[in-house]
Design goal:
With 202 residues, the chain is mostly helical. It has helices at 10-28, 35-42, 56-80, 85-102, 104-110, 122-147, 152-170, 175-178, 182-201. Helix 4 packs antiparallel against helix 6 (122-147).
Amino acid sequence: MRNVDFVKPAEDLRRTLLDASIDLVATEGLEALSMREVARRAGVSHQAPYHYFTDREAILAEIVAEGFQQLRAAMVSAAGAAKTPGKRLSAIGRTYLAFALAHPAHFKLMFRSELVPAEKHKEAHACANAAFELLVSSVDEVVRQNLGKADPSLVLAAWSLAHGLATLMLEGKLKEQVGDSRRSQIAAAHDALDAFTRLVEG
């Protein structure tokens, strides 16, 4: 195997290591992730990852931060295309689901706080908060329009619904209810998200 850690530019190699880590988690599970295995998959010397990440946890923190950044960017884009508060909330819920299905390795790590402690990884924590605040503001916009005041319990309900649907789909738990077709499962999940929006809208 050719070692490429002194051939590729630093940023390219960092990206290669992250991509190898994400692929490893996606295909073999979190327990398979180690600095040595990441190096092997990336085609670099076993010491190369340590030039960019202090340890395994640092790689996980980078994946978590990246995941929340990508999720927030996707939600901002979806919300920007919607014309009413209710449609923005539904769009954000659908985007949350789509992100989970498209990036399962990121998604499964993003909510494992025991693996990436907030007090040790400030950037990952800040990225998570920024994504969550977008959800909060979207729910509040709909609720204030109809109730005249914010309701934190509805924020929790909205997040729980979107996250629960995403998790159920990733774990294959919707098949008995709506069939094996991914299209039918997504449609059912969208219906549930839209139903919640209608309830909040009153």
